Amino acid sequence: MDMKAFIEFCKEGKPILASDKELHGLLIECSYEAQRVTMKLNTSYHSKEEIVEIFRELTGTEVDSSFTCFPPFYTDFGKNITIGKNVFFNTGCSFQDRGGIRIGDGSLIGMNVTIATLNHGLSIETRNGTYPSPVVIGENVWIGSSATILPGVTIGDNAVVAAGAVVTKDVPKNTVVAGVPAKVIKKIDTNLN
To answer: Quick check: is 120 catalytic?
Structure first.
């Protein structure tokens, strides 16, 4: 399998078992590439335009010129992140994206937010395998500082995730969630002017 086929394999949401040495080798190669690109991003000053270009290289996809990131930014894969228009990442974000992270237009990701998309098997026999579940962040979502979004979560449009929350379940649109684990604490009135 070549790297292009491997990235497609990952985007299809397939697990990687400990016994598959070829896939592990490709995963390590892709991870080192993500480290190379994020080291370039994180170790010197870049203009906004340069950061957009670095994210295009990191993700292998088009990233809109309206995107803003305040480095440092960390990821272990890089090739399964989709970023909408007018998206903002604050400093210190850490994405485990092999399972897929899709971020809708106008979303704001606060300082030190962690997004995870992989689980390990629970049994000893499957524990060294990784099982992907995508994270989908809707449009105009605000994720507060140091929040953690776990695998398989969808956050609805206009939702707010409070600082420090651990999101283990889907978040309905137009709501505020907080706590560990995160729970709905408020509805957002979208009819206000």
So the answer is: yes
